[in-house]
Design brief:
- With about 280 residues, this protein is an alpha+beta fold.
- The protein folds into two domains: about 120 residues, Lipocalin (Beta Barrel), CATH 2.40.128.270; about 110 residues, no CATH class.
- Strands 1, 2, 3, 4, 5, 6, 7, 8 and 9 form a nine-stranded antiparallel sheet that branches.
- A hairpin with a 4-residue loop joins strand 5 and strand 6.
- Helix 5 packs antiparallel against helix 6.
- The N and C termini lie far apart (about 90 Å).
- About 25% of the residues are buried.
Length: about 280
């Protein structure tokens, strides 16, 4: 009897071990922490070095779609569709469709260098770090891009809010340059438009107007600079319901006054949207 029980016990143990061997290993899935998120570039540089803030009026955003491993990227001079592979630490982009568009400051070395740096990091991305509201993307050469998270719901609400997306008409009714250099001081007008679009205090307007004068003078046109200064001082008052008045991004009337923290946040977000 004991021998029979021992045999049955041996068979039972052997059977149980066989069942355990047949159990499949649990499948490990990687959670895509980027899916359905929208990011706006704040700065760029190299790991361990001081970061360079992006120049004004240049939109750089990453929109990771909720479905599929696709993302939409917006640069200053191009927009595109990317596919990406991601796990807990690595991130690699592949460009699918890229469309060129008019640059905010075409031909300006600082902006072109910025555009080139950012493009190279995106196309050469290797890893990333993410927190609740910040994303850092690294390339193999330790170049990095630092993004802040924009909530889609709030962004959509802000688009319908009071501040219109930034747009510039160049130097308005004034020429953008000379007969032979037709965009000689266009960059100066674009930067000036950005200041006028967001508005602010009376002192800030004066600083923007003086900066326009200095910018035009720096390209060798001091007399034109003074003429333009006179024009914006006379015609740029927030009291006039013109499309180029001080604070023209806001509904008329928008009087002088320093922008609140909420208004400055809205300015920063709307500057990167296309009208």
């Amino acid at each position: 009897m004991k021998q029979l029980l021992s045999s049955l016990l041996f068979i039972l143990i052997f059977f149980l071990q066989g069942c355990e061997d047949k159990q499949e290993e649990p499948e490990i899935t990687t959670v895509n922490r980027l899916s359905g998120t929208f990011w706006q570039l704040e700065s760029y540089g190299h790991r361990g070095s001081e970061q360079q803030e992006i120049l004004i009026s240049t939109p750089y955003t990453l929109d990771f779609r909720s479905s599929h491993s696709q993302a939409d990227v917006t640069f200053d001079c191009q927009i595109g569709e990317l596919t990406y592979n991601v796990d807990m630490t690595s991130l690699h982009f592949t460009a699918q469709h890229v469309t060129q568009r008019d640059c905010t400051f075409s031909g300006v070395a600082l902006y072109e260098d910025q555009e080139r740096f950012i493009y190279e990091v995106i196309t050469g991305s290797a890893s990333y770090e993410i927190s609740s509201d910040h994303l850092v993307i690294y390339a193999n050469n330790d170049a990095q891009l630092s993004f802040k998270k924009i909530e889609q719901e709030r962004l959509a609400h802000d688009q319908l809010a009071e501040l219109a997306p930034f747009q510039s008409d160049g130097c308005s009714a004034f020429p953008d340059g000379t007969l032979f250099q037709q965009e000689l001081w266009l960059r100066c007008c674009n930067v000036h438009d950005y200041a006028y679009w967001k508005g602010g205090s009376e002192n800030e307007r004066e600083e923007a107007d003086l900066a326009l004068r200095d910018c035009v003078a720096d390209v060798g046109e001091e007399e034109i600079a003074l003429l333009m200064l006179l024009g914006v001082r006379v015609g740029g008052s927030p009291l006039f319901p013109t499309p180029y008045r001080w604070g023209y991004g806001w509904p008329y009337p928008k009087s002088y006054g320093r922008l609140s923290a909420d208004e400055l946040q809205l300015v920063e977000e709307m500057a990167y949207l296309q009208p």
